[in-house]
């Protein structure tokens, strides 16, 4: 995004200055300064990565059927995700997740995971490059990156499908509420998890076919991450790692 010149018209933007200071600190080996910059301004700089992360993921792997964006403290329940997406057609435009927001813009909460179909990404990235270019500039001032994703998609005629809200969860397991509409529904995600807590979830929750709040507890989970043969591309915002999750 920065190297491509997408933000060249805003060279004095504060977030670009934070990014420049961070890269300079890393290049100079001043990791303590880099850590301090990240702790203070990391959340703001992450907002610039949402659109560029999705765009890069699609450009590198346009043949993926599904594109999943999530925070780096989000844990995905693999079997549940596979089950839900297995009932949807990636050749149609899908944008799904845990809906939040107001009448101005309903958007999928990034911490609960955001899912786009292949066709939706094609319409956004390939068919509307000017909209994407404008979104890069908007990321310099946007308050929330996940809301920016929604407003960008809306400009391309793609709106959040709220029929799938209750499959996505933006809370840690200990405080996830068991609601009537979720009790027998596959649960896709947990949020605000440290690496140690994720490992603990792996020992506590096991996915056989699907996991729902009514049956998930007391099981054990083995998370499988492997090859690019998966039809789903995962883009993690924060560390900006790209992973491919092997679906059994």
TrEMBL record:
**Membrane topology category:** Single-pass type II membrane protein
Pathway(s) where this gene product acts: Protein modification; protein glycosylation
Compartments annotated for it: namely: Membrane
InterPro entries per UniProt: C1GALT1/C1GALT1_chp1, Fringe-like_glycosylTrfase
Q: Does the keyword Hydrolase apply?
A: no
Q: Which Pfam families match?
A: Fringe
Q: Does the keyword Nucleotide-binding apply?
A: yes
- UniProt keyword terms in alphabetical order: Glycosyltransferase, Membrane, Nucleotide-binding, Signal-anchor, Transferase, Transmembrane, Transmembrane helix
What is this enzyme's class at the first EC digit? transferase
Give the E.C. number(s). Answer: 2.4.1.122
- Please list the residue ranges annotated as the Fringe-like glycosyltransferase domain: 60-124
Output one GO MF annotation.
Answer: nucleotide binding
Q: Its GO CC terms?
A: membrane
Q: Which family does it belong to?
A: Belongs to the glycosyltransferase 31 family. Beta3-Gal-T subfamily.
Protein name per Swiss-Prot or TrEMBL: N-acetylgalactosaminide beta-1,3-galactosyltransferase
Recorded source organism is Sclerotinia nivalis
């Amino acid at each position: 995004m920065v190297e491509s010149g997408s933000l060249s018209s805003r060279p004095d933007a504060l977030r670009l200055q934070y990014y420049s200071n961070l890269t300079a600190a890393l290049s100079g080996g001043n990791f303590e300064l880099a850590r301090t910059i990240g702790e203070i301004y990391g959340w703001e700089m992450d907002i610039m990565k949402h659109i560029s992360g999705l765009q890069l993921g699609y450009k590198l792997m346009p043949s993926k059927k599904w594109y999943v964006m999530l925070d780096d403290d989000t844990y995905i329940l693999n079997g549940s995700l596979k089950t839900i997406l297995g009932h949807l057609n990636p050749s149609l435009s899908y944008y799904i997740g845990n809906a939040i927001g107001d009448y101005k813009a309903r958007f999928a909460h990034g911490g609960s995971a955001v899912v786009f179909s292949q066709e939706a990404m094609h319409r956004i990235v390939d068919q509307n490059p000017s909209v994407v270019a404008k979104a890069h500039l908007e990321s310099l001032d946007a308050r929330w990156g996940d809301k920016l994703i929604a407003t960008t998609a809306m400009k391309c005629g793609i709106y959040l499908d709220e029929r799938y809200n209750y499959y996505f969860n933006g809370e840690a397991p200990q405080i996830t509420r068991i609601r009537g509409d979720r009790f027998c529904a596959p649960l896709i995600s947990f949020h605000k998890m440290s690496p140690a807590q994720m490992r603990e979830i792996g020992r506590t929750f096991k996915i056989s076919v699907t996991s729902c709040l009514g049956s998930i507890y007391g099981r054990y989970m083995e998370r499988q991450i492997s090859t690019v043969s998966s039809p789903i591309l995962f883009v993690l915002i924060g560390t900006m790692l790209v992973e491919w999750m092997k679906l059994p």
